[in-house]
């Protein structure tokens, strides 16, 4: 059963206002405002439960509830184990039930993200915008200035690929000669439509490691819907994905998107009271793995060519605190010949991407991003690696706007390059 806001009262009263969250909250560090902090937000939610405030009728309170990144840093630091991020999501669901969603958010969640064909069509429109000259025109005539936060966030868009990952699957999927493992790959929305190069690299890496990969048809994992309080659509998408993946007998369900992995893993709690989908969700959650996590567990091949570069790593929030995956991507990076790994200060601090947060809260997101870019600059690294496409987009934007030399890249892309470099070296020796 998904708890309502009122049923979370026992969770909220545990906050003793100690202030441990002050040192780890990115929005508080950027603004200095009490209500940009877990302690302050918890106070607002408690007052609402006590009838002193009404979450559904106070726009200013809504602003503080929706300015949370849901990064989970406060939860990890809290000595009283207050689950502020869960409370925030429950509060947003309460607001959504009472007021509905603003039209742009509702269209994005239900009109686009809930339908893969529409999302792919939208990506094609964006590609046309980038390639036709419309982007140049929009920037130079000042049109983007009229679009507010959305116009400012336009620079976040990566170069949209010509083909989606799913269109390329017939050419990419090759059953290994002697497969040692079999997994189902979850191709997330951003990987399929915007970061296909990451998906291609992941599939090549897995097949290089004698892993047979199947790619079921899937929809959005539901993480964006949960973040905006649309639990009804989150449950619908979860059931559709469970129907698709339950048809396959596999060792694991892997994804190269930390947010998708966290979203899939959350199905067990979301559907625990459903007599049919509850058991399926529990089985799926037990199999869900981050791409680097699974490779480390089974033992990935260490025969590689060199990638001569200094590399640092940014921990996605959903990986570090949601899945407890931190060491695995580092182990992979450190195993690559030629890689000089440098740890970045505050590597697990949120980059400010947080799904669409960098669009809806662009200015605040950029302040948070500035801290991350300063830490990256101090490493002297050439590659800023991560394992989440949303982070990848935000980090690449940071490198661009702050004019820093370096490249944002997925861990699987670096590992893929190492395997390819080994193949090139082998051919050269044979020749």
Automatic annotation (TrEMBL):
Keyword Electron transport: yes
4Fe-4S ferredoxin-type domain mapped to chain residues: 6-35, 57-88
Matches recorded under InterPro entries: 4Fe4S_Fe-S-bd, 4Fe4S_Fe_S_CS, Cys_rich_dom, Glc_ox_4Fe-4S, Helical_ferredxn
Catalysed reactions, as listed in the record: (R)-lactate + A = pyruvate + AH2; glycolate + A = glyoxylate + AH2
Gene3D superfamilies per UniProt: Alpha-helical ferredoxin
Entry EC number(s): 1.1.99.14
Keywords: 4Fe-4S, Electron transport, Iron, Iron-sulfur, Metal-binding, Repeat, Transport
Cofactor: [4Fe-4S] cluster
Keyword Zinc: no
GO molecular function, one term: metal ion binding
Membrane-spanning intervals of the chain: none
Its biological purpose: Component of a complex that catalyzes the oxidation of glycolate to glyoxylate.
PANTHER family: GLYCOLATE OXIDASE IRON-SULFUR SUBUNIT
Name the UniProt record assigns to this protein: Glycolate oxidase iron-sulfur subunit
